[in-house]
Write a structure and sequence with these properties.
Integral membrane protein; 59% helix; elongated; mainly alpha; single chain; 162 residues; membrane; 4 helices; transmembrane helix
Length: 162
């Protein structure tokens, strides 16, 4: 979960979220393996539901972790931002599972990829020029408490200031 600090949640809650997330990702990988058999035609309902339900569980565990972390940190819940990040991807996954019977396998996968990118769009947009890794590669942003002060340089990513 992005920006989760060690002091935000007790370890037993983090381990529970970690276990459920790993289970969902493992089942998603199994679904992708089963998808290879049907890559040129429609998916069986069981494989389609496995892919879509596991992705929806992954998104909802992220929402539960964000709510728990914000509550434990004493910060106010920003329901608008939380639901904007989690509701569309989980809705796409569940609608694809329910009504995607006639969709080809590749379309189901690309719908889930689009849903995943939707949930990551703010994190991908926050790449900064000030946090460069080895050989000038842009790295993921640090949490606000760690990142330090902002510099006034122009950033190459979306014209934002770094």
């Amino acid at each position: 979960m992005p920006n989760l600090r060690a002091s935000a949640l007790p370890p037993r809650i983090v381990l529970l979220l970690h276990s459920v997330t790993n289970g969902a990702l493992g089942a998603l990988a199994a679904g992708l393996g089963a998808l290879a058999e049907h890559r040129h035609d429609e998916l069986p309902a069981s494989v389609r539901w496995l892919l879509c339900a596991c992705f929806a569980v992954y998104v909802l565990v992220g929402l539960a972790g964000a709510v728990a972390a914000q509550t434990a940190a004493g910060a106010g819940l920003r329901w608008g931002a939380l639901l904007t990040h989690s509701l569309p991807p989980s809705a796409v996954a569940l609608f694809t599972g329910a009504f995607g019977g006639r969709l080809p396998a590749g379309t189901v996968v690309w719908l889930l990829v689009a849903a995943a990118v939707w949930g990551l769009r703010d994190y991908l947009g926050r790449l900064t020029c000030d946090e460069r890794g080895p050989r000038g590669a842009v790295s993921w942003p640090r949490p606000p408490a760690v990142s330090g002060r902002r510099r006034g340089r122009r950033c190459a990513v979306r014209g934002r200031r770094g």
